[in-house]
Amino acid sequence: MKGVRxxxxxxxxxxxxxxxxxxxxxxxKEIEEETGFWEPSTGSVYPLLESLEEDELxxxxxxxxxxxxxxxxxxxxxxxxxxxxxxxxRKSLKQSMVVFSxxxxxxxxxxxxxxxxxxCEDASGLRKKIHGLHHRLQGKVDNPDFSNADLxxxxxxxxxxxxxxxxxxx
Length: 170
Fold this sequence. Notes:
Elements: H1 8-19, H2 24-35, H3 42-54, E1 58-63, E2 66-71, H4 73-83, H5 86-104, H6 107-114, H7 124-141, H8 148-169
Antiparallel strand pairs: 1-2
Helix pairs in contact: 1-4, 2-3, 2-7, 5-6
């Protein structure tokens, strides 16, 4: 996927396998569901799974439904060590966003960058739900058999509920 930094797929797979076992196809679909846009190719995922297995970061288990992958203790350790580098990556991304916002006069990008100061681990489950919602809505928009009026009603009700939450904060 163009636009996604190289090396993310390895750590995304390790993150998912920390949460449970997956087939190769299941990993692809889970990444697509969580991100709402990134569907890694089989040509990227399967060779990477083989490489991770060779490095003893994951192991394959054959089931009646095909191969299932699990993370090893060595894989968990590798993931944790990579997670320690995330503050450096966050700082780099934040600085890039600030520069981008200055060059192109994009105030919203600057606001996002300023909010990047803290971690968002506590909200990761919620972020996953939000990405999944985006993905499902996009699927309905692109489906000619789905009623746009029904979809618009769902979105408008969601906006109303979010507005109520915002008003309650004030």
